[in-house]
């Protein structure tokens, strides 16, 4: 059983993968453009926010010191990461269009890592925002960030579902039943045997004879008889047989003897 059969209950999983590829490529392109235009300025602004709210955290201080020492290497890593993400989006879009399962696996790995990053950033951002924004804004911010994290996780599950569907449609059993083209499935048994295209042909119902009939069931055209009626009919048959034997022995034979006696008297006279 696959994880999902449709994308947001209105589109196919294949179309959902194409949408995910486009959105993910656009997101990585925007991040690369920000890095090219601003450089490390946004990183230092993020560092200042973390240092102001996590003054006693040794991890935050060590990370900030490492970023200040190697800003160019970090920028190169971000650029390379986003470039690879764009490439995997392109490959996954081609795989979704041509129904290639292995082309989508790299994007599924990237989206899983992105899901983990989003969840961590959402938790840290909400912990920082509770000291800055009022309660109403914090509630709206929590709902928005939670929805975005769930959306990213849903996209990852959609990619995994597409991979499962591709493994299913390219399996030997599926191709034996529906043909080698997943976009145009055909019942192979009907095409091989030359059956008509009528989806509901009129078939003659077979005659079924039950060895053990059900209670109250009609056997052919005879009504079911009760057990006491069967006993009465059997007694009547026995009485008829006995009376016929009796009449044959007593009355018929007596009439024969009488007729012979009469004939004998006429012969004597």
From TrEMBL:
Alphabetic keyword roster: Membrane, Transmembrane, Transmembrane helix
Q: Does the keyword Membrane apply?
A: yes
**Membrane-spanning ranges:** 6-26, 76-97, 104-126, 138-170
Q: Which superkingdom?
A: Eukaryota
What protein name applies here? Uncharacterized protein
């Amino acid at each position: 059983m696959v994880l999902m059969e449709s994308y947001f209950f209105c589109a196919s999983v294949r179309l959902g993968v194409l949408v995910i590829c486009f959105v993910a490529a656009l997101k990585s392109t925007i991040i690369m453009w920000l890095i090219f235009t601003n450089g490390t300025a946004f990183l230092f602004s993020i560092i200042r926010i973390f240092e102001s709210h996590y003054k006693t955290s040794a991890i935050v201080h060590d990370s900030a010191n490492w970023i200040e020492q190697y800003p160019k290497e970090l920028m190169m890593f971000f650029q390379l990461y986003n470039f690879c993400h764009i490439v995997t989006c392109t490959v996954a879009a081609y795989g979704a269009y041509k129904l290639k399962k292995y082309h989508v696996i790299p994007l599924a790995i990237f989206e899983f890592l992105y899901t983990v990053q989003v969840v961590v950033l959402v938790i840290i951002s909400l912990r920082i925002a509770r000291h800055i924004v009022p309660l109403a804004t914090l509630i709206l911010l929590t709902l928005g960030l939670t929805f975005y994290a769930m959306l990213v996780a849903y996209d990852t599950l959609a990619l995994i579902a597409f991979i499962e569907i591709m493994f299913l449609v390219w399996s030997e059993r599926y191709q034996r039943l529906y043909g080698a083209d997943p976009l145009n499935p055909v019942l192979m048994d009907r095409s091989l045997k030359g059956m008509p295209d009528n989806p509901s042909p009129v078939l003659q119902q077979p005659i079924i004879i039950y060895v053990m009939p059900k209670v109250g069931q009609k056997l052919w055209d005879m009504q079911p008889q009760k057990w006491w009626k069967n006993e009465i009919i059997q007694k009547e048959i026995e009485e008829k047989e006995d009376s016929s034997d009796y009449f044959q022995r007593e009355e018929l034979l007596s009439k024969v003897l009488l007729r012979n006696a009469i004939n004998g008297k006429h012969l004597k006279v």
